[in-house]
Amino acid sequence: MSLVRDISPRTIERLSLYRRLLLPRHEGEGSYIFSHDLAELAGVTATQVRRDFMQLGCMGVPRTGYRIGDLLSGISNILDAPSGQRAALVGVGHLGAALLNHFSGRWRWLHIHAAFDTDPAKTGGTIHGCQCFPLTDLSHLVRERNIELGIITVPKEHAQEVADLLITSGVRGLLNFAPLRLRHPATIYVENVDLTSAFETVAYFSRSRSSSALISEPHRGFPSLDDRKLSGGCF
Amino acid sequence: MSLVRDISPRTIERLSLYRRLLLPRHEGEGSYIFSHDLAELAGVTATQVRRDFMQLGCMGVPRTGYRIGDLLSGISNILDAPSGQRAALVGVGHLGAALLNHFSGRWRWLHIHAAFDTDPAKTGGTIHGCQCFPLTDLSHLVRERNIELGIITVPKEHAQEVADLLITSGVRGLLNFAPLRLRHPATIYVENVDLTSAFETVAYFSRSRSSSALISEPHRGFPSLDDRKLSGGCF
DNA sequence: GAGTGTGAAGGCCTTCACAGCT
DNA sequence: AGCTGTGAAGGCCTTCACACTC
Predict the structure, then answer these.
(1) Which listed CATH number (3.40.50.10300, 3.40.50.720, 3.30.1490.20, 3.10.120.10) goes with A85-196?
(2) What residues of chain B, 86 to 125, have a C-beta less than 8 Å from chain A?
(3) Is the pLDDT assigned to residue B191 strictly greater than 70?
(4) A18 part of contact set with chain B, CB < 8 Å
(5) What is the DSSP annotation of B177-204?
(6) How far, in Å, is the CA of A7 from the C1' of nucleotide D9?
(7) Buried b vs exposed e over A118-149: b needs ≥16 C-beta within 10 Å?
(8) Ramachandran region of residue A90, left (φ > 0), alpha (ψ -120 to 50) or beta?
(9) Contacts of B158 (CB under 8 A, 6+ apart)
(10) A72 CB near a chain B CB, below 8 Å?
(11) CATH 3.40.1280.10 fits A9-78, yes or no
């Protein structure tokens, strides 16, 4: 199917970002973009952008740039499974609900198909457009509905057993938000989103930045704050 | 203060994880741990763990291991600012509320001190133990209460202006959950948590894993699913 | 023997430098 | 001149291999 192989995790993450940045700029077949413009939007170097596009097999034209339509279909070729992929989310607490709200029905090729919880008050209905079932139905539904991915948003005490349940039910990848590392067979891909580490990391580097010398890019064009108004509900 | 310099981001993230894994195992001065045991918990190699501890200046003893108390104070020396650090969260939607719930009052050395939103229905009170203010108070409060970090959980349309406001108010680091990259001066450290990329990454690698050869560790000891019971509310 | 400490090697990822195209 | 495509170099991070210690 896709000719391209062995794309690194970092590149995959950037492709996902590029797509989101390119979509609003795709206005018909005549829309092009330069590597340095996309680089600015994505916060990376222009060379990095060109190397990533090399892997897609997308070629640009000097003094014209890359055709956005080509880029989008190239990225979709890599990122999207031809028949789509479904995820099950386990643990409809605050974080789980936030993810349901954020991802529900946003893309047709990848979406959260069902949510699960042990709390009867949460099951039986629909949350942010996603059906919520008791956890005891998980194994059955994962098999029957061909769910390939699991999203774990339960407290850390239950994360490992939920992971085991998802894996034996047949999912092939896990997105883990619990603040620990799951044991799992090598056939399962696990991506950890560690919010605590992220918080402590930004705290650490925000300190070391300002004290010692900094080497980063000079960042031309940082806007001065005018009194623009802020409105609209936050998600 | 700390003698150690130039610790890499990856190491900082692991130190944060190690601490969480070690805390429940710290039972007085007599508790020790081997590098390979912590490695198993953290999902990394034993060599990696020993190298990380080298940077802390923590020494282990062959056949005895590392004293957990030493590790915890070594990690705290690196990660925690002596006088503590405060964060402001902007955007009390689902995700913002989840973070408030997750982090509120969990550690005294690093915590979310105040939340901000433009929606009057959300401001004026307390959410998960955190005071919530109108966004117009942000600049004033950040300065007055010495808030060093900003957490951005607003829709992408407002993320850049919120970042600008936080930066001009004096924060030194940002934790950004909006699905784009913020423009910012080099003096500000920005950590992006890209939930969409994480979701698409796990989708991609869960496919490529099972199809082609896998090289990962054989993972001895994956538990077979017995019918253990799942209980307790999910967060 | 079992586990640590660490120089050296390896691998992955990014950037440099520059040739080539329009 | 302006921008792309890419070999080569560089940098960061992890793993190997092994001396050393209890």
Answers:
(1) 3.40.50.720
(2) 87, 90-99, 101-103, 110, 117-119
(3) yes
(4) no
(5) -SSS-----TTSEEEE--HHHHHHHHHH
(6) 22
(7) beeebbeeebbebebbebeebeebbeeeebbb
(8) beta
(9) A230, A232, A234, B91
(10) no
(11) no
Single-letter code of the amino acid located at B212: S
**The token pair that represents A227 in the structure block:** 């009194």
Report the DSSP beta bridge partners of residue B130: B127
The pLDDT score that the predictor gives to residue B78 is 95
Compute the average pLDDT of residues A1-19: 84
User: What's the full length of chain B, in residues?
Assistant: 235
The distance from CA B136 to its chain's CA centroid, rounded to whole angstroms, is 28
Average the pLDDT over B68-94 and give the result.
96
pLDDT at B209: 65
Which tokens in the block code for residue A186? 């090598």
Cα distances from A40 to residues A61, A126, A184, B158, in angstroms, run 19, 40, 38, 18
**Rg, Å, chain B Cα set:** 21
Whole-number pLDDT of residue A107 = 87
pLDDT over 90 percentage in chain A? 82
Whether chain B has a CB inside 8 Å of the CB on A153: the answer is yes
Token reading at A26: 């795709």
pTM of the model: 0.90
